[in-house]
Amino acid sequence: MKTITIQTRIDTNLKKSAENILSSIGLDITSAIRLFLTQCVVQRRLPFQAVAPEEQYNEDTLAAFKETEDIASGKIKPKTYDSFYDAIQDLKSEAAEDEPEYNK
What is the pTM for the complete model shown? Predict the structure, then answer.
């Protein structure tokens, strides 16, 4: 089988971080790239879900993600309401609690 060389430029810190993680599971950069490309061909798509880094989310969004995971896993029970009015009242009271002191 004929092979070719692929060259790419990446940030030094990214390379070092990736090498540390990959070496802990017994892979080097070349093997990881070969594995990635093989899986792209086999699956006919990216072999993982592409998502934005968590650093791009604010604390409220991250807390909402966590709460969603906790509800889905059964760690906490979801809030329930007897009526739409009750849900709105709860939202209003939560918003009032979160309001900055200088607005009160």
Answer: 0.49
What is the per-residue pLDDT across 3-21, written as a single tens digit (0 to 9) for each?
Answer: 999 999 999 999 999 999 9
User: Are 15 and 44 part of one and the same domain?
Assistant: yes
**How distant, in Å, are the alpha carbons of 15, 23, 63 from that of 91?**
46, 48, 16
Tell me the residue range of the domain where 79 lies. 54-99
The CA–CA distances, whole Å, from 5 to 28, 34, 73, 89 equal 16, 12, 46, 63
Tell me the helices (H) and strands (E) count for the chain, helix number first.
4, 0
- ∠ CA 54-57-60, rounded to 5°: 125
pLDDT the model gives residue 95: 82
- Report if residue 80 sits inside a domain: yes
The number of distinct structural domains making up the chain is 2
The neighbour count for residue 70, using CB atoms within 10 Å, is 13
